């Protein structure tokens, strides 16, 4: 039973680690993965009980990687917003769009 419990946790961490690796790959090569989000979002398993003590270092390492990836995503979103705002202020060289006529009848 202990081996089944440990095996279930190992499999759960394997899945979670693959999910983090996918996100890290997307961050490393944004052009290739820009329009291909991960198909399967990791869902925590149920009924596993407590994490085996010998798997804690691995779980901690995966958590550290998740937090680093989330921080990088937030940084890139902020940079993207700033770039969008700056781009909106750039003059394109086109004439400023003004009304073609003004109704003075009133």
TrEMBL record:
So which domain of life are we looking at?
A: Bacteria
Name used for this protein in its record: Uncharacterized protein
